[in-house]
Amino acid sequence: MCGAPVQGQNLPAGVDAEKETVITGKVVGASGDAIGGAYVRLLDSTGEFTAEVVASGSGDFRFFAAPGDWTVRALSASGNGQSTVSPQGAGVHEVTITVGA
């Protein structure tokens, strides 16, 4: 079992989205239904593993990262998928990952 924390869309108290770079999103299946329990990995611009979380029951996930180019990859029993995101500064940056498509 992975020790990655389960995620949700609400930011924790005390997080200032104007000062933090937050990558958040949802894991969905080909039909658009949420995929909970997927392992979501954050990879840097060279493809190196940086972090991993477990998507919530509603498919939500969240990472705190630096500005730059990132790949967000989801691994689940329903399939795998990935998306890229390139936040250039602080704020909440959303991405959807479709798996099994």
TrEMBL record:
Pfam families: DUF1416. This is DUF1416 domain-containing protein. It comes from Hoyosella rhizosphaerae.
